[in-house]
Each structure stands twice: as structure tokens, then as C-alpha cells.
Amino acid sequence: MSLAVKPLLPLALSFATPLLAQQQPPTGDDLRTMYCVEVIRSQIELQHHLIASADAAAASASTPALRQQWITTSAELLQGLALLEQARYRLQTYMLPRIPALDPAALAVAVRAGLADSQSGDPVLLIRASGCQNPAWLPP
């Protein structure tokens, strides 16, 4: 390498390195997945509260029939919780390796939208959020 080229090599690498490390915009599936991770997280949190309430109601039930009804409700909620946790695992397994290469600002917008929609009382938004329980857009 000639002496004239040697000083240019570090300069060229200093320009190339940020280009190589530049983050890509997320795809529609990436944004939907991040949205759904937050929706499912919120649903799991709600499910835990519902299970605790059902267990408390069973413990203080006034009749054996009412107690059994609350126990059955709690069991159904636990089954729902297991399904939500499976969906969350699938979403996270897809996204975790992708996150470092993606623009974090766009991902943050998707997460905030998921949180807002999951806390909304708007039926349209709640229907969209319920689609997160079966992430059919992800590869098997």
C-alpha cells in the first residue's frame, strides 16, 4: 500500500462503519409484532388480576356451588393465560433477533399504539388487538 493511500484507509472506514451499523426501518410484520407484544403483555397482566379475583371470590363464596363456579372460572382463566403466554413467546421469538437491526423509534411507536389500543374501550380497536392472540402472519 502506498503512503498516500494509508492515511485514507481509516478515513474511509470511519464513513463506512456508520453505514454498516445503520438500522433499517421495520417491516409491517415487525411493527405488527411489536404492537402485539404490548397488547399480549397487557392482556396477560389483566388475566393475572382476573385469576386473583376469581380465586378470592372462590375463597369467600357463601355456598359450595358458588365456590365451584368460581373455581371453574379460575381454571378457564388459567387456560386463557397459557394461550396468551404461548402467543407472547411466539411473538418474542420472532422479534428478539431482529430488534438490534431495526429503527427503535418506529418500534416504540408500535409499542405505544399497542398499549393505547389494549387500554381503549373502542370496540374496533379491541377487535384489532384481539387479533394478536393468533399471530398467523409469523412463520411457523
Structure description:
The chain has 140 residues and is mostly helical. It has one domain. 73% of the residues lie in helices and 0% in strands. Helix 2 packs antiparallel against helix 3 (64-95) and helix 2 (28-59) runs parallel beside helix 4 (104-119). It is elongated.
Mean pLDDT: 87
The number of helices is 5
Q: Strand pairing plus helix content: what structural class?
A: mainly alpha
Termini separation (Å)?
51 Å
For this structure, the quaternary state is single chain
Unreliable residue stretches: 1-20
Helix content: over 70%
Q: Please state the overall shape, judged from the principal axes of the Cα atoms.
A: elongated
Order of helix and strand elements from N to C terminus: HHHHH
Question: Which sheet architecture does the biggest sheet show?
Answer: none
Radius of gyration equals 24 Å
Strand residues, percent: under 5%
Number of domains: 1
- How many DSSP-defined strands? 0
What's this entry about, in short?
The chain is an all-alpha fold and 140 residues long. The chain is built from 5 helices and no strands.
Characteristic terms for this protein:
mainly alpha, disordered N terminus
